[in-house]
Amino acid sequence: MSSNDDHILATLKILIIGESGVGKSSLLLRFTDDRFDVEMAATIGVDFKVKQLTIDGNRVKLAIWDTAGQERFRTLTPGYYRGAQGAILVYDVCNRDSFRQLDRWIAELDTFSTKMNIIKMLVGNKIDQEDKREVTRDEGARFARKHSMLFIEASARTREGVQIAFEELVEKIIQTPLLWENEQKSKENTVQPHDNENSNEGAQGCYC
């Protein structure tokens, strides 16, 4: 372990969930590498990236898990949710069905999450395609309030809202010490299947 880790407040496991095609992998790539790949294919199985972030003077290491939205990969579910302190639920503002499916994703999160006070962030992605919008911002905000979630609209293509979505989620987790303090003290983090200490460039995973 590098000496830099001595100054890390916590290692947090963050999930990105939602229907296939809503832009989960694109949001992850924009946040970790500041890139957008217009030809990015659907995730097969699970992708995993590590990034360090400083919030209010506290440095944390994020292990961010992005899973396939297709039903045939759902056998991954229980282990995927285990130990997560935060979850980003993504829908496509241009696809009302992806918004309708959020209830199912929340039910799954509540079923398999091992932390009852997991912090949830709702992200309406693809706002750069305003002419194709099917879900209003107000609808997203109302849904988030109903389920006690943070909320933001974003565009992985233009960067808008992406950084702040992760920052606000992490800030709320830090403000909820019961989510992470005990695990830090015992060093029993369950977030590093092939962790690379070079944070931003570690654990590139597979986008194919």
UniProtKB/TrEMBL annotation:
<keyword id="KW-0378">Hydrolase</keyword>
<dbReference type="GO" id="GO:0003925">
    <property type="term" value="F:G protein activity"/>
</dbReference>
<protein>
    <recommendedName>
        <fullName>small monomeric GTPase</fullName>
        <ecNumber>3.6.5.2</ecNumber>
    </recommendedName>
</protein>
<dbReference type="InterPro" id="IPR005225">
    <property type="entry name" value="Small_GTP-bd"/>
</dbReference>
<keyword id="KW-0653">Protein transport</keyword>
<keyword id="KW-0449">Lipoprotein</keyword>
<dbReference type="GO" id="GO:0015031">
    <property type="term" value="P:protein transport"/>
</dbReference>
<keyword id="KW-0547">Nucleotide-binding</keyword>
<comment type="similarity">
    <text>Belongs to the small GTPase superfamily. Rab family.</text>
</comment>
<dbReference type="InterPro" id="IPR025662">
    <property type="entry name" value="Sigma_54_int_dom_ATP-bd_1"/>
</dbReference>
<dbReference type="InterPro" id="IPR050227">
    <property type="entry name" value="Rab"/>
</dbReference>
<dbReference type="InterPro" id="IPR027417">
    <property type="entry name" value="P-loop_NTPase"/>
</dbReference>
<dbReference type="InterPro" id="IPR001806">
    <property type="entry name" value="Small_GTPase"/>
</dbReference>
<dbReference type="GO" id="GO:0005525">
    <property type="term" value="F:GTP binding"/>
</dbReference>
<keyword id="KW-0636">Prenylation</keyword>
<keyword id="KW-0813">Transport</keyword>
<keyword id="KW-0342">GTP-binding</keyword>
<dbReference type="Pfam" id="PF00071">
    <property type="entry name" value="Ras"/>
</dbReference>
<feature type="region of interest" description="Disordered">
    <location>
        <begin position="185"/>
        <end position="208"/>
    </location>
</feature>
